[in-house]
Automatic annotation (TrEMBL):
Active-site residues, as the UniProt record annotates them: R161, S235 (proton donor), E331
PROSITE patterns: FAD_PCMH (PS51387)
Catalytic activity field: UDP-N-acetyl-alpha-D-muramate + NADP(+) = UDP-N-acetyl-3-O-(1-carboxyvinyl)-alpha-D-glucosamine + NADPH + H(+)
Organism expressing this protein natively: Roseivirga thermotolerans
Subcellular localization(s) per the UniProt record: Cytoplasm
Keyword Transmembrane included in the entry's annotation: no
Domain of life: Bacteria
EC number: 1.3.1.98
Gene transcribed to yield this protein: murB
Function: Cell wall formation.
Primary location group: cytoplasm
Protein name, as recorded: UDP-N-acetylenolpyruvoylglucosamine reductase
Length: 335
């Protein structure tokens, strides 16, 4: 049933060479249940798009590739569409399908790499929108029992790039499907970043979910490297939040430090600014480095080693901590 000694290079967007001792792509919940029964006791690693993982070693266990596919309109009200999406679907392709069908709410999340199943796990977000704003429920399979369980919004305990599946339930469930609550009458979010400026440059006078998606795609392509060209996992670190008093102290020393007030009273500081100010932007070390346009992105130019990228991340964390007294935390899962 399982393939053996499989290269994972094409299954992670960093393009890191590592091998899985056992590998299986499941395309139904039944297949997943059977795989779990046959691999009892083996270490497990579940991969979706491999866009949020840094492999630092061969994996001596079973790598399960999520191949669950399908997008279905399951309910419709006067205001919303309820769309059930299988976890193996490509996230950006789903966004494009939503726009094509007039399902609103996720257009600001265009061009985010990865699969639908990873979206609630990470509570992915961009340009003023996070998954939790359009999330209804998901179905996940409990590894220990092999049973499907439904999780509602509250049970997922969403936070900034966090959910219960990265905390208390980490490694205990495999997400199989996600149901989204998408809009019919759209509220357009153009206030974040350069969306409005880009729309103006594009000559857009009539706002639509497609226009916003096009603007977001244009912005992301201008800033972020395409993993098909340069190995990367997108933003490597989370943006840190600090207490207001600490932010004021920083501002007294670094007058141009940007900050964004948060609902919890803290101030979010862009990690990219901290990393650039610490002198890392565009630095290369052999065949790895920090991207020249977006210092939040660590890159593999080809033949890079996962441990070398991990060490680079540690060095960046230490440097930022020393200069600003702020701890950066990885958004990427280091295996």
């Amino acid at each position: 049933m399982f393939e053996k000694n499989v290269s994972l290079k094409s299954y992670n967007t960093f393009g890191i060479e590592a091998k899985a001792s056992h590998f299986f792509t499941f395309r139904s919940v039944d297949q997943l249940q059977q795989a779990l029964e046959q691999s009892a006791g083996m270490p497990l690693l579940v991969l979706g798009g491999g866009s949020n993982v840094l492999l630092t070693r061969d994996f001596e266990g079973l790598v399960l590739k999520n191949g669950l596919m399908g997008v279905e309109l399951i309910e419709e009200t006067e205001e919303h569409y309820y769309i059930k999406v299988q976890a193996g679907e490509n996230w950006h392709q789903f966004v494009l399908k939503a726009i094509e069908n007039g399902w609103g709410g996720i257009e600001n999340l265009s061009l985010i790499p990865g699969t639908v199943g990873a979206a609630p796990m990470q509570n992915i977000g961009a340009y003023g929108v996070e998954i939790e704003q359009v999330f209804d429920h998901l179905e996940a399979l409990e590894i220990a029992s092999g049973q499907l369980r439904r999780f509602n919004h509250a049970e997922c305990a969403f936070g900034y790039r966090e959910s219960v599946f990265k905390k208390e339930l980490k490694g205990r469930f495999i997400i199989c499907s996600v149901t989204f609550k998408l809009t019919k009458a759209h509220e357009f979010n153009t206030s974040y970043g350069a969306i409005q400026q880009t729309l103006d440059e594009m000559g857009v006078t009539q706002l639509s979910i497609k226009a916003i998606s096009d603007a977001v795609i244009k912005i992301r392509q201008s800033k972020l490297p395409d993993p098909a060209q340069i190995g990367n996992a997108g933003s490597f670190f989370k943006n840190p939040s600090v207490d207001k008093i600490d932010y004021e102290g920083l501002k007294a020393e670094f007058t141009n430090v940007p900050g964004y007030n948060q609902p919890d009273g803290k101030v979010k500081i862009p990690a990219a600014w901290l990393i650039e100010q610490a002198g890392w932007k565009g630095k290369t070390f052999g065949n790895i480095g920090v991207h020249k346009l977006q210092p939040l992105v660590l890159v593999n130019y080809g033949g890079g080693n996962g441990n070398a990228i991990k060490e680079l991340a540690f060095d960046i964390q230490a440097s930022v901590s020393q200069k600003f007294g702020i701890e950066l935390h990885p958004e990427v899962n280091i295996i």
